[in-house]
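We were asked to recover a plausible sequence for a given structure. The inputs and outputs are reproduced exactly as logged, with field labels preserved.

PROBLEM: sequence recovery
POSITIONS: 344
GIVEN STRUCTURE:
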């Protein structure tokens, strides 16, 4: 592996055969296809051989046939982000980008993420799991409150229930909302204020923050449509924040990355109530498979730090190979080599 600038992640020092997993059957399939296409094009521009795999049920057979040096996981949602694909790749002995099995299982579950992060001093909203039947009987929290699926990414199925919501009080079974699509939802108090996000990138000196972006939405909130529709959201990078809030966001993002055992890159989302100062900053979730589309935040923050898109992709591949080598060495010493306890 060859170094670039001091403190910058290494990049591969020879051409590789990379299988790019994309697509799949999750709600986020269209975004994954955009991410995967961008990644594949970038790797080819760097001289690597790329096999593009639109993941189907025969994905293990396809990978066994093509025998890549490393797999770039450009999947979003289930089963590419929840530990299923990670477990398969571990069993096949393949190097792959982003986080491992145990980390993926925890981070995609918003309630498990809270149980992991809050004891380490990372502030997150309270709340509880509710069934759709409970919602039809009474509000689980005072309005306004947020309802979100426990195991979905990219703000899929998120709803804010207010006194003005056209859903009834209590919520009507006929009202359109995530309660019609999910048997259980996480109910959290709504935190007013500004939408912020901070990416983390692994390197030879450990994880480092790439900065903080503020997401400014004309109306509504930062849901799936706003994330992936051009012109729906304004990205302000670096966010115009008090220095102590920027520092806190970056510190919490790195801490979450470390506590969860993330690899490669992660992105942590925040809400900040400026009226409450530092006490008004809350972590909403940590994304272990951030998007790699032209509108995605990790590539945007990396570019703002002087890391072009193709270099970022190569760095993630190099980190995957480093983690795989560390897992192999760990197994030889008697460890199981999986999940959040992986050597880094």
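RECOVERED SEQUENCE:
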């Amino acid at each position: 592996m060859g170094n670039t600038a001091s403190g910058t992640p290494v990049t591969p020092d020879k051409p590789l055969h990379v299988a790019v997993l994309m697509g799949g059957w999750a709600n986020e399939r269209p975004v994954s296809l955009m991410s995967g296409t961008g990644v594949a094009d970038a790797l080819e521009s760097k001289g690597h051989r790329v096999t593009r795999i639109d993941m189907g049920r025969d994905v293990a057979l396809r990978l066994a046939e093509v025998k890549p040096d490393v797999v770039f996981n450009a999947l979003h949602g289930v089963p590419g982000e929840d530990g299923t694909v990670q477990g398969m790749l571990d069993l096949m002995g393949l190097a792959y980008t982003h986080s491992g099995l145990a980390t993926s299982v925890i981070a995609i579950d918003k309630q498990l993420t809270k149980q992991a992060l809050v004891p380490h001093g990372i502030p997150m909203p309270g709340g509880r799991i509710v069934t759709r039947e409970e919602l039809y009987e009474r509000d689980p929290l005072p309005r306004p409150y947020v309802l979100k699926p426990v195991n979905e990414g990219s703000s899929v199925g998120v709803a804010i229930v207010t006194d003005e919501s056209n859903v009834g009080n209590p919520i009507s079974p006929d009202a359109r909302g995530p309660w019609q699509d999910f048997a259980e939802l996480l109910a959290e108090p709504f935190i007013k204020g500004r939408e912020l996000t901070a990416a983390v990138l692994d390197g030879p000196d450990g994880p480092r923050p790439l900065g903080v972006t503020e997401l400014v939405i004309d109306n509504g909130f930062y849901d799936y449509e706003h994330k992936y529709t051009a012109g729906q959201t304004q990205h302000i990078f670096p966010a115009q924040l008090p220095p102590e809030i920027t520092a806190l966001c970056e510190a919490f993002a790195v801490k979450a990355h470390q506590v969860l055992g993330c690899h490669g890159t992660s992105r942590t989302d925040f809400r900040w109530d400026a009226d409450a100062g530092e006490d008004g900053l809350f972590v909403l979730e940590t994304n272990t498979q951030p998007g790699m589309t032209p509108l995605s935040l990790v590539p945007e923050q990396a570019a703002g730090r002087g890391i072009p898109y193709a270099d970022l992709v190569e760095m993630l591949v190099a980190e995957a190979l480093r983690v795989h080598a560390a897992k192999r060495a760990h197994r030889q010493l008697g460890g199981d080599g999986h999940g959040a306890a992986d050597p880094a």
